[in-house]
Amino acid sequence: MEGTTQESHLHGLSVLITGASRGIGAATARLFSKSGAKLGIAGRKGAALSEVAEETGARVFFCDVSDYSQVNEAVDGMCAAFGRVDVLINNAAILEPIGPVYQLNPDQWKRQIEVNLNGIFFGLRAALPVMLSQGSGTIINIGSGRAHVPGENRAGYCASKAGAYMLTKVAQLECGDTVRIMSLSPGVVATEMQSKVKASGLSSGVGENAVGQVSPEFVAEALSWMCSSSADQFRGEEISLRDPVVRALLSDRP
Asked: Which fold has domain 8-251?
């Protein structure tokens, strides 16, 4: 699958991606733009986000996902520009604080929960009324294996991702067949966040220095597949790119 440049099922869809200035978010913006999506990207104000917008032609929404009013404004902006929101990818997340629970800075902990967990809720809260009203939509939350397996020195990251995983399941339960809500656990991805993990020098257990890192582009193609009916069997679930069954499904794509 890797190397695909266009995904025809995305053509004409109104797609909003948070945390799109780099890594998975930026790679997804590039792929979806090439595939003809009507694209909006959201993130903190900065040159990186503006560069992705210039490259992809996306509408930019300067947005701190920990602030509901800003997330809601981004969703409203997509509706104003394109008349609807077909896809929301909740990608924004932060890694810090790193360290043992008994040494963590409470303010940094609060900030991490606000971004990684509240940010997911705010995206759901803003987009779901629109999608339920229009009768369809897809929301994908970027998850982590750390939602299921604890890692030393990553208490906030593990806790926030575990909360987001359960939020995904509850939201799908409440929305029935109208909206598709899923989570993607990408595994070890070659991004700036992964570089920070290694640079911290603090172990969080197996996996983060493992061989078999995937590229952000591969994750973007997985996200594209999740926007199609081919992934309907995973509604309300977290798809792991480490899962051989999922890898086989992805590799069988044309």
From this structure: Rossmann fold (3.40.50)
